[in-house]
Amino acid sequence: MNRELEYMFVQAARVWIPDAEDVWKSAELIKDYKNGDASLQLLLEDGTNLELKLDPKTNNLPYLRNPDILVGENDLTALSYLHEPAVLHNLKVRFTDSKLIYTYCGIVLVAINPYESLPIYGSDIINAYSGQNMGDMDPHIFAVAEEAYKQMARDERNQSIIVSGESGAGKTVSAKYAMRYFATVSGSASDANIEEKVLASNPIMEAIGNAKTTRNDNSSRFGKYIEIGFDSRYRIIGANMRTYLLEKSRVVFQADEERNYHIFYQLCAAAHLPEFKNLRLSSANDFLYTRQGRSPVIDGVDDAKELCTTRHAFTLLGINESSQVGLFQVLAAILHLGNVEIKERDSDSSLIPPNNRHLTAFCELVGVAYQDMSQWLCHRKLKTATETYIKPLPRLQATNARDALSKHVYAKLFNWIVEHVNKALVTNVKQHSFIGVLDIYGCVCLDLTHSGPSPFKDHLVTLVLLFTRFETFEINSFEQFCINYANEKLQQQFNMHVFKLEQEEYMREQIPWTLIDFYDNQPCINLIEAKMGVLDLLDEECRMPKGSDDSWAQKLYNTHLKTCSLFEKPRMSNRAFIIQHFADKVEYQCDGFLEKNKDTVNEEQINVMKASKFDLLVQLFHDEEKVTSPTGPVPGTGGRTRLSIKPDKSRDSSCKEHKKTVGCQFRNSLQMLMGTLNATTPHYVRCIKPNDFKLAFSFDPKRAVQQLRACGVLETIRISAAGFPSRWTYQEFFSRYRVLMKQKDVLPDMKLTCKNVLEKLVEDQDKYQFGKTKIFFRAGQVAYLEKLRADKLRVACIRIQKTIRCWLARKKFLRKRGAAITIQRFTRGYQARCLAKFMRRTQAATIIQKYQRMCVEKKRYQQKQAAALAMQTILRAYQARQLYQTLLREHKAVLIQKHIRGWLARCWYKRCLEAIVYLQCCIRRMRAKRELKKLKIEARSVEHFKKLNKGMENKIMQLQRKIDEQNKDHRLISEKLVGLESSYATETERMRAELSRLRGVEEDARSRANQVSSLLEELEKLKKELSVTQQEKKSIEDWAHTYRNQMEKVLSELKDENGSLKKEKDDLNRRIQEQSQQMTGTFHALLIPHHNITTPFHLLTNLLALRHQRKWLVRCSRYQNLLSDHLHLEEKYDDLKEEMARSSNMSKPGHRRTDSTHSSNESEYTYNSEYAELEEGSRAGEDMTRGIDTSLTLKLQKRVTELEQEKQSLRNELENKEEQFQRARARDDAEFRKARGAELEYESLKRQELESENKKLRHDLSEMRRSLLADAATGAGAPGSPAYKVLLDQLNASCEELEVRKEEVLILRSQLVSQKEAMHHKETMTEPSVFADDVNKLKDADELKQAYVGLKDTNRLLEHQIQTQRRTYDSEVEFLRGELQNVKEENNRQQQLLAQNLQLPPEARIEASLQHEITRLTNENLELMTDDPTASQEARVIILRRMVDLMEQLEKQDRTIRKLKKQLKVYSKRIGEMGVGQAEGQTSPGQMVEEPIHPVNIPRREKDFQGMLEYKKEDEMKLVKNLILELKPRGVAVNLIPGLPAYILFMCLRHADYLNDDQKVRTLLTSTINSIKKILKKRGDDFETVSFWLANTCRFLHCLKQYSGDEAFMKLNTSRQNEHCLSNFDLAEYRQVISDLAIQIYQQLIKCLENILLSMIVPGMLEHETIQGVSGVKPTGLRKRTSSIADEGTYTLDSILRQLSAFHSTMCQHGTDPELIKQVVKQLFYIIGAVTLNNLLLRKDMCSWSKGMQIRYNVSQLEEWLRDKGLMTCGAKETLEPLIQAAQLLQVKKKTDEDAEAICSMCQALTTAQIVKVLNLYTPVNEFEERVSVAFIRTIQTHLRDRCESPQLLMDTKMIYPVTFPFNPSCVALETIQIPSSLNLSFLTRV
């Protein structure tokens, strides 16, 4: 211990010494202290030397100062030295220098009144503290409120907030802000705005219960306890208020510079208002009760405006205007009563002059008789056992009686207001928990006989408890005694709670626990409240008939003077006593104790008031006999969750309560209050008044230390200092004091490492203890360790400085040496350059001479060489020409020989080939005939075998068929019987019910038979008309269908004609292709200059767009904010509807759809309406049936009315049907005329096309003739040539062979049919059971064996034949199928071409049809060219033959169109027959069913879909349900294309638009929008769901724009997409609705993302050390270690980046637009920056140089993430600029004016308030850092005073940037979209 003291008390150590003015003064040691020194040599801060003498007995050294890095800490318990000067200095530094009014002291929040409005209580600050752990943010009243709210929700335990402080310290304001916090963060569970009502009670209670005192302009003069109730979801459901000890004497008396209650001055200030004329009020100086303090006005307060606020609060709490007027009448009457002048008649009596205007006004206002009131103000009735006397009162007693009545009336009015406030705050919802707020006024205090501080003053607060220190008064009476009694109880509770927390902490960490000695004030409490205590003796004296204050004082002396050390008697008085309270001794005067304890009022005056004609006054006094005291009732001792001031209604209890005194009531109330507080978890707030002059941020140390001593803060410090106040986790200790360890001391076990180091550093092991998770230090040990650390760092710094200075000196020397060497080098270089220049000149002259001579000789040589070359060239050319002529002759001779020899060889080969082919044909014909004979023989053998077994087969088949028929008949009969039985039972029940119903309605039916018959006749007429209309419509449709078939047939004929000529247009197609290529090149050449021209225009357009972008963003932001508000209102409206629906369901036993369950969807509404009508009709029928027996007449009347209504509705329906029929008939006629005209036009166009095609064919044939003649001239392909003959012979042979094959196929087909039937019979016969029976029946085994062998051989032979034939047949079938498919495809293509041609003008139709035909023929030719050459040659032969045939036909029919048409019909008929034959061949009986035919790989053309989806009207709800409500976004995003639901919905919408169905379009869009809102409301907190529907909503919006038909949106469409545009409806209004929906989804997505990221931002961006070892760990206070902090896990920057990556990947998977993703990322980065900066501005421990480095590194990681994702241009980086500048501000130099200018120019994104806040919060982590001086901060403020900016401190984290949805067209073709089966949308049909 001595070693540590000697180490700490060394030169330059700073200590605290007492001072008379500043309480404590700082000094510095000049000389080291040695053990045994008698004095200390000190140097004061003003430069004077001081020698401090030490007591040789105690040797008490002065208090040591904490290190500078600990000064200004958020928590006083974080100080190493815990003593009074350290606490006082820390509070002063925080308050005056940093402008921080809140500081933690363990579990206590110390609040210093700044006497200035601070911007730290706004909603942004509330949102910043909401959800935060206490200690994570800077100290604040909101942090205490959040801790109470969080513990209530987490621990399921009620909470209380206890505020203490003297008058003017800010207790009421603190309680008000606490309640505001609860009201803001919790909200209300109902629509009654309970939180607003709770806050509205404050102005009411301040008006009637607060007054100006000498030390506070708004001092509470009563105590109140408010319970704020919460439901199970911890939302405010109500509140309840209890009041204590109203200062009634203030109504009739005020001291100098004080005022009466505010409400009186407010009424006087508003006396000029018309509604207050009848109150007869004037200025406050005109009334006795408001002018005694001679200070009727408060600076800065407008009483008239305050009255408006009070009246508004009354209205909000449900007190109507009439009740308010009544209240004001009573208050005005009290003022008039105070002005009633009572004059002295004689010494024993008094009187009131007649016609006293004030008494008259009083009587008129309260509705009592003037004479009665005048009588009993001056007289009193005395009752004895036998008689009653009326005794006049002296003037003084009469005046006191008048004042007593005024006080009593005001107290009754006060209680009435409190009761009605409670009624307004009460709720029917069950209370789950509560937070109490306790508030007691603090101006009336005690007279002190000693000058020491005293801790008792205020009453109870709103479960925010307010303590005060004792103040000096001349007389302390009954009120001060009660207040101090309450403070004794509360101080005891506080001490016990602090002690309990300390003990729990030590036991939790399992360290040895030593009892701490602290002051226990239980003896003082026993002296007051125990049996035979002060209050007990006082009540006993009050019950005595002749009890007096003197006799009571004597009883006190006799009882306690000798037995209790805390009770004393003054030396000079026999009417006073002294009690030793917690803080000091207090002397009480006994005068008035009994009278105030009884609290009596003249009974006759009360009777007069009861007889009043004024209703409100009667309400105040009607239960007078039940009211005990105007201070309020005594609540029962039962539950603690509901406290009420309303007394018990029972007579017995009222009689008993009437006997209780004020002291007894107060003691019971206090005991119950303490029980409530003990049952809750308390939270303490200590309010400090910094000075007595209300100067802003002025700190008086004397006044502050007096309050600290009295309110228990220093007691908390003392309890903490007696144990182990400093507590470090092992990780914090290791990180902080790693510099004190050597490398060998660092072990893998951190706990063991810390133990080893501490044992070496601190010798006394009692100075620390090792817990489970923390190390506990005694007071001063942290400072000792900090000094060791600082010394170690100082040595290291010196070594670093030495090394750096050496490095700088060496660097300077090397720089000089290098400069000298450089100079030498340049000098030597100059000399060398001069020598080299001379040498170069000499060499240059020599070279010039050499080259001159060389040039002359070279010129002469070149002339000779040119002459020689010319001669050689001429000679060599002549020789080459001779050689060329020789070679040319030889080459031509060889070429002639080659062609002649080739022609001869080909002729010989063709003759040989022809002979071979002929020989093959003969041989094959012979073999075929042989094979045919064999087949015929085999067929005959099979027929013979069938005849043999025919009888047996027929018999078996007949038996089997008979059995099957019997089984079938049996089954049918059984089913029919069961059905008949069930139908009979059903019919029986139905007939019985029908019979009973018919009996009931028989009479009614008879009476209404005529009306029903007439209605039926009208109905039959309508049905007949409807049937006629339907028949007409059907006939028209049949005619249209027939006509359409005819036209299609004609079209097919034309297409066949065109198909026959498709191979004849190769040349024309090639020419067209060449021309198109030339045109394309020309077009591209023209486009290049056009593009260059349009480029400046686009630049100009972009500039104009950028100029208007800012205005548009502002408008968009306003619109989206309004849209967000509309969304909130809509959600609230939906919630109300759901709640109404639930209440209606609860109230009714059965379920019925009501209007509250109706959707906004029109289809749902229609369905619900019809359903409700049906239900009503059925219920009406049932009611009529049940009521026939009882009230037949009424039922018949009701039925008549209903039938009349039905008749009227049928008439209306008939009229509507007639109108619809007329409109339909007119529409059908118009369509028929239009269709007929189109058909006539079509026929004429077809005729013209046929004529033009005929001309074209003629031209083509003539061209082919010319080409054939030209070919014939060359001898190739002429009709008489050998090649032509060979070709024709081969073709004839092929035709003959084909005919033979056809015959063979027919024969084989018939054989296959018979063989198949035989096999079928065999299979039927060989069933397992039947075959076994038949075998058993056969007796001849040889027959069976022979039959089996024969069948086996036959089957083998047939199988071989069938396989051979099947292969041949399959090949033919495949070929025919391919041909048929080609024909079908060609038919479809021609139909499409014809439909397109019909849309063109007549002049372009023929040209377009020719163009399409040429293209088709070209493609076919290209396909033939690319195939097998052999096949191509055969095709060419076939084409050549067809061309010859066509030439012959056209030569005969070129002049007649009819013959050409007939020929076309013949061709089309043949093609049809071939198609039919092929189709029959596909289903030929010869094909085996058992073996499936494998599909032929033939390219097929898909069906040409139009990109539409058809659905039925009744499937709309199923569509919405499967596609929206029950769709899982995760599976869709992974497995399907992005935006698939949007595409499906749009395709359904397109089909509705195609049908021109307005109702279907409207209902589909409405259902889609409502369903999306519903799913988002249900799963709005799921990010994937919100992101998925944002992407799909935007895609749906883009589809509506892309296919709207607007040219602005069609620029990037393909031609196919343009064909899919909507044609009938303009959905621009719905586009706006969907855009609004997308904005709402975007805002919901941002909120969802914010909720996910919010818990990660602060830990990841601020708290986590991304760069390990940079941030130093400072000592932390108790708040960081409180057990209320829950471990929520640790987030890092990597967690944020991973979460951002997950967001980005999910949105990309959902197909979100890239621009929209950029906007989301920008908003997320703004939230990250805003939340981080806000927490930085509210956390002093985060404002350091090292933390600035951490923040900048984290920001760089975020920028790297943006760079990786390609999002650097989205503007997200700019949103982090305020955070970057704040981090730079933490790192820059902050000393000189130049630094201030640099900071002002650097921090452009920060406001002045933010810059000043960061500078005030800047905290050095090490001693080497310096604090920011106050002068520098003032300089910054001077430089920034011209800035025009918002004074708001925090950034708005709820701000959302305006969102835009840039048009992003889709490249997906609608007709290619496939609907997966997983969506369960099979009812949709692609169109």
Which structural category do the helix and sheet elements fall into?
alpha+beta
| Radius of gyration over all CA atoms, rounded | 55 Å
Query: What's the count of strands?
Result: 27
Helix content: 55-70%
Largest sheet data: 8 strands, mixed
Note the total helix count.
54
Terminal-residue CA separation = 96 Å
Concise summary:
With 1887 residues, the protein is an alpha+beta fold. It is built from 54 helices and 27 strands.
Provide an overview of this structure:
The protein has 54 helices and 27 strands. The strands form eight sheets. Strands 6, 7, 8, 11, 12, 17, 18 and 22 form an eight-stranded mixed β-sheet that branches. Helix 6 (194-209) packs across helix 9 (303-316) and helix 6 runs antiparallel to helix 13 (395-425). The protein is extended and about 170 Å long. 31% of the residues are buried.
Which properties best describe this structure?
eight-stranded mixed β-sheet, five-stranded antiparallel β-sheet, 63% helix
Topology summary:
Blueprint: H1 2-8, E1 14-19, E2 23-29, E3 39-44, E4 49-53, E5 63-64, H2 84-97, E6 102-105, E7 108-112, H3 123-129, H4 141-155, E8 159-164, H5 171-186, H6 194-209, E9 210-211, E10 219-220, E11 223-230, E12 236-244, H7 262-269, H8 288-291, H9 303-316, H10 321-338, E13 343-344, E14 350-351, H11 357-366, H12 370-378, E15 379-383, E16 388-392, H13 395-425, E17 433-439, E18 461-462, H14 478-509, H15 522-529, H16 534-543, H17 549-560, E19 567-568, E20 576-580, E21 585-589, H18 593-598, H19 603-610, H20 615-621, H21 651-658, H22 662-678, E22 681-688, H23 701-711, H24 713-722, E23 726-729, H25 730-736, H26 750-761, E24 768-770, E25 774-777, H27 781-948, H28 950-1007, H29 1009-1060, H30 1066-1107, H31 1109-1147, H32 1162-1187, H33 1192-1274, H34 1282-1325, H35 1328-1337, H36 1341-1399, H37 1402-1426, H38 1429-1453, H39 1457-1482, E26 1509-1510, H40 1516-1525, H41 1529-1535, H42 1540-1554, H43 1558-1578, H44 1583-1602, H45 1615-1619, H46 1628-1663, H47 1693-1709, H48 1714-1737, H49 1745-1765, H50 1772-1775, H51 1777-1787, H52 1793-1802, H53 1808-1817, H54 1830-1839, ...
Parallel strand pairs: 7-22, 8-17, 8-22
Antiparallel strand pairs: 1-2, 1-5, 2-3, 3-4, 6-7, 9-10, 11-12, 11-17, 13-14, 15-16, 17-18, 19-20, 20-21, 23-25, 24-25, 26-27
Helix pairs in contact: 4-5, 5-6, 6-7, 6-9, 6-13, 7-9, 10-11, 10-13, 14-15, 14-22, 14-24, 16-17, 25-26, 27-34, 29-33, 29-36, 29-39, 30-37, 31-46, 33-37, 33-38, 34-36, 36-37, 36-39, 40-43, 42-43, 42-44, 43-46, 44-46, 46-47, 46-48, 48-51, 49-51, 52-54, 53-54
